[in-house]
Amino acid sequence: MRDHWNPPRLWRLVFTGLSFALFGLGGLLLRIICFPLIALLERDPQQRRRRARLLISRAFCFFVEFMRRTGVITWSIDHPGRLGRAGQMVLANHPSLIDVVLLIACMRDANCVVKESLWHNPFTRGPVRAAGYISNNASVEMIEETAAALREGQTLVIFPEGTRTSPGQMPVFHRGAAAIAIRGALCVTPVVIRVSPTTLTKAEPWYSIPARRVHFSLSVGEDIDPREYAQAAPPPVASRRLDARLHEYFVQELTKNERSAP
């Protein structure tokens, strides 16, 4: 149930800043202490990767709970049990900076396509490398690497927009996500993310605090089988058709949410 407590704006500004500081400090601690310890104790590369991803998921859970308990955000998710299956592509729109944090917090062992810049950021490069996340450099090698991860049975989180959506605009997907799904996914599970009021968008700095507390709503949809498209047409055509269906789904859901919003 949504918490109706609405702390003053100054309170939320202070704890938003503390949340970002906590996130950066946590990333450094994982890189300097936790991941080297995992590497020392676990020789098997796949087990190291699983332990790293589990640790990141738990750290994100702690981070989200800190933001919730301090009055920065509230959040909800429906059908969380649909997430985290083998060979599943979790495909979401990207309205806010912490979308990936919320999704990864819901899954114990998930791969993720992340911005290439995160591989060089001192606060994030440790976690993304230890977890074996994939850089979104849009190369042919990246598409094949991502498809191969799905074929191995990994869960993959991807934001097909490639960047955060500007407020008031519908998402525009790059076709690479559909191409990856055609090549390797057993299922594509859409997740519609809605933020009210908007915050941490592409157009808003972190200190632009809205008048009331922000609520994140994650709606996990039913699976889409990419093999239906792969079997009916050559890969380029199948990718276009799947991309069109996914885009139509998100536009319909986001428009429906807008109409039903108070």
TrEMBL record:
Q: Which GO terms describe its biological process?
A: phosphatidic acid biosynthetic process
Q: Where are the transmembrane segments?
A: 20-41
Q: Which GO terms describe its molecular function?
A: 1-acylglycerol-3-phosphate O-acyltransferase activity
Please state the pathway this protein functions in, per its UniProt record: Lipid metabolism
Which keywords describe this protein according to UniProt? Answer: Acyltransferase, Membrane, Transferase, Transmembrane, Transmembrane helix
Where the record annotates domain Phospholipid/glycerol acyltransferase, the positions are 88-196
Q: Does the keyword Acyltransferase apply?
A: yes
Instruction: State the name under which the record lists this protein.
Output: 1-acyl-sn-glycerol-3-phosphate acyltransferase
